[in-house]
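I wish you would study the pair of lines that follows with an eye to the fold:

===
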Amino acid sequence: GIGTDGHRIEAFIPGDIHATAIDPTVLKLAATGRQNMIDVLRPKFVVIHDLLEGASVNHHAADQPLERYKTENRGLTTIQSELQATADTLKKYYRAFSELKIVNSNHNRWLDRWLDSKDVGRIDARNLKMFFDGNLARLYAADGGDHLNVLEYLMRKYTTLALPSVEFLGLNQTFLLCNKKLEAGMHGDFGANGSRGGPKQLAKIGRKAITAHSHVTGIYDGLYVAGTSTQFDMGYNNGPSSWSHSHVIVYKNGKRAIITMFKDKWRA
């Protein structure tokens, strides 16, 4: 038969966002510039991985004064400032014709790790109210047998995020695309039975899937992995790099493609 064109895609899964470290060119090509991917492809779903960078709660920099100084200079010392900047970036991916799905990701859960801080006395005084509020909200959620999505709770309460169709996926919450053919709710950081995740392991789960997490794109049997939307120099990834600005798109019939941005372009 004769093929047709001009149809909208089912889903757009950009590489890890890390909103406060996103590459400006990637943001332009994906969401804000003329003929950007979202407006051209008109996905039914936009699936966001690692929405949060987590600079304000970076446990790796807890004992590194130089890194904390750099975070201060970026205006991200307070969690509220980072969450507001994150909300501002997320809004740029929103369209009335799409639904935003925020995948439960390891950088997003750095907030949970921060709420587990044992030395409350070391917490910046400007973050103390949010610290106690977040912990109290977790306790109330636990009373109901729930696991609080801390990023969602804090963003909805402390930022101007007010989008009508954004869902923050819960821990271990599945999100299936294309008549339940594709799993799109895994970030890629968890493996089987609580082990550390990895593409080779997750390719064996028995269902076709799309993940992110490693910043390295690839196809592993039935698993497609998105890359990153961040700047390539993140300060900790020294040496040769296999990172790429690669994004996964899903067609209505379940077929997938990886689109890699190169030299300020996403298509010919």
Summary: Helices lie at 24-32, 37-41, 65-73, 79-91, 110-115, 128-143, 150-158, 199-202. Residues 128-143 form the longest helix (16 residues). The CA atoms of residues 115 and 131 lie 6 Å apart. The longest strand covers residues 246-250.
